[in-house]
Amino acid sequence: MQERGLSVQERGLSAYLAELIGTFLLVFFVTSVVVLFVATGDQAQFGSDFAVVGLVHAFLLFGLIVMFGVASGGHFNPAVTLAAAAIRRISPMDAAIYVLAQLSGGVLGALLCKGLLVDEGRATNYGATEVSGLLGGAFQGAIVEAIGTFCLVLVILSAVYSRKSFKEWAPLAIGTTLGFIVMVGGPLTGGSFNPARWFGPALVGNEWGDVWPYLLGPIVGALLAAAVYRFVLEVGGLPPTEPPEPVKATARVADTPRKADTPRKADTPRDPESPKPKSEPAS
Fold this sequence. Notes:
The chain is mostly helical. It has a single domain, classed as Glycerol uptake facilitator protein (Up-down Bundle), CATH 1.20.1080.10. The protein has ten helices and no strands. α1 packs antiparallel against α3 (about 50-70) and α7 packs antiparallel against α8 (about 170-190). It is globular and about 50 Å long. The N and C termini lie far apart (about 90 Å).
């Protein structure tokens, strides 16, 4: 990561393509697992296996960050890009291109899901999300989306951009965070927490439902996460720490005593008052 004065990172075509391909894979696998494991009907929330859906989210995002994070930072989510722009880690122009690439990838991923699972996906509108009847309405759905996005984005900012974190743990921390918020929020709102993941299936399945919870909720959650990171986590906390270095078990050759270092008998000083050894008489 660059220092504070050079925090805005330069992006290029490889980064834009990485965001497009990464979001395409994310939406395709997410919508596919929703089609295969989420039931429909009045009791859909209780007949669906959201544990499987959440684990797929976790492993999938973990792998995508490892694959494409070195090229683009591994956003795959307009809410993450918005937060990165808010803390000045990406320029507004690059952020706009990122969002366009992510929305395009979301549409392509949903199209591929529809092309492969035409009949199976029709009941779930090819993975499109909607606010559940378990909630009071769209406002409660927006709150769920905002809280989930807040948790996800704050973990990303802390794990990736903080100089106090262990960067090697970032993909696992981010992936597992998305997994558990989908397990909880999936039965309530479909577990989007990502405008690109909502937009692609909604366009392909022509099922828009309540639009503003999936737009306003992630935007508010991302901006709150950026504010907490900027004014609480970045300025406070413990000083930077480094992971402990492994201790080598092999001893150095220089530390072992050498035989030549032991004093020889002829080199030991002799007391001048001690009697001289008698010489043997010549025969």
